[in-house]
Amino acid sequence: MKSKKIICSIIIVSIIVSLFALPLNTSAKTIKEFEEEIKKYTDELQAKKNQVETNEAEIAKIKKKIANIEQEIKESEIEIKNLQDEIDESNKEIQQKSEESKKILEYYQISNGNNIYLEYAFGATDITDMIYRLSVIEQLTDYNDKIMKELEALIEKNKKQQEELTKKQKELGTMKNNLLAEKLRIDADSAAIKAGMPGIEEQIKAAKSQLEYYKNLGCGETEDIQACQYRKDQENQSSGSSIPSVNGFYRPVEHGYITQWYEGCRYFDPRINTCTGHLGMDIGSSNKSIDIYPIAPGYVTATYYDNAGALVVKIKHKYNGRYIYSTYAHQRTFAVRAGQYVSQYTTIGKMGSTGNSTGPHLHLEVTNCDWKSTGGGCSWRTYAESSTMNPANFVSFPSSWNNR
């Protein structure tokens, strides 16, 4: 009786321990559900790709308009130069006519008084001479008025032309600035769609590859894809190709410290298909090129450069009857290849600062599925939005350490 109680106690304790040792999202996803997710996801990605293509076509039109405006500005500058030449010639003519008018008046001026024309008129010897002199005075006055009007017309014409060209240049400059602002807006829209996530084509290809993998694996339409994969893995145990189960986790570097803790996805923006938040933990070290190790034994599922140029290694682990994935980013070098088995003592690379990084460090993520690994079981969106787990739930991380 006592032995039965002991056995029951052991079973209960084992169950409790297993519950605490399984910080995993174990929600089942069937191959049908995954297929629906992939279809929805690829449709969304295709829409983003179409938007980028539309943006690029619009930018091409804007660039053409800007080129036309720049040509108009050049032509306007030539017009202004030609007008300035005309103004310079007009100014010469104005000066010449002014001198001519002055000389005529001086020539006929009899005195410095205000009655010069009268004195000239009344100096006639007879009526005929008087009429002649009055006629001369009238002609001089008309001629002088004519010269003054011509001068005023030239000045007005030059002023008006200059104002029109200045206005035209200002309008062209405004149009150009507006087009440049629109180009920047469209560029920013395209950049936002592309940034923070892998390439659209890469995501679509990976998602379709995932689906193909599960179909080829022979998973039933309503079977949990993780359970199906685990079952197939168990079947392969006899051939030695099965992933060994994880019995414990290790720190990924021999000595280091935490530079940024895990936050998770605080907000997922569907427009740019990425998260606000820190999906992993950042680890620094006094040795800026220290060796990096897996946190547990497993198989390398992918080694690649992400869209920002970071070197990334992904490893698949078997843990508590499920699979988890660890990701190691910003490495300086690769030391492993996809398909390779690694133990917790295998060097997988060296710490670096590749990609979007401000200094040498390791970005470590732990997830319950993966978008890049064959059989990873999720799309990029699911990966970013809901698959990440706090690495500290698996690995003991003090603020700094000198052993693994």
List the SSEs and their pairings.
Layout: H1 2-20, H2 31-108, H3 116-122, H4 127-194, H5 200-217, H6 225-235, E1 256-260, E2 267-269, E3 274-276, E4 281-284, E5 291-292, E6 298-305, E7 311-319, E8 322-331, E9 333-334, E10 341-342, E11 349-350, E12 362-367, H7 380-387, E13 388-389, E14 400-401
Antiparallel strand pairs: 1-4, 1-14, 2-3, 4-12, 5-11, 6-7, 6-10, 7-8, 8-12, 9-11, 12-13
Helix pairs in contact: 2-4, 2-5, 3-4
Descriptive key words:
404 residues; alpha+beta; 52% helix; 14 strands; 2 domains; 7 helices; 3-stranded antiparallel β-sheet; Glucose Permease (Domain IIA); 9-stranded antiparallel β-sheet
Tell me how many strands there are.
14
Distance between the termini: 45 Å
Q: State the order of secondary-structure elements, H for helix, E for strand.
A: HHHHHHEEEEEEEEEEEEHEE
Radius of gyration: 43 Å
CATH topology-level fold name of the largest domain: Glucose Permease (Domain IIA)
- Count of discrete domains: 2
Tally of DSSP helical segments: 7
Q: What average pLDDT do the residues reach?
A: 78
CATH architecture of the largest domain: Distorted Sandwich
- Return the CATH class of the largest domain: Mainly Beta
What best-fitting shape do the alpha-carbon axes yield?
elongated
The share of residues in helices is: 40-55%
Structural class: alpha+beta
Which stretches of 5+ consecutive residues score pLDDT under 50?
1-26, 110-114
Major sheet description: 9 strands, antiparallel
Quote the beta fraction: 5-15%
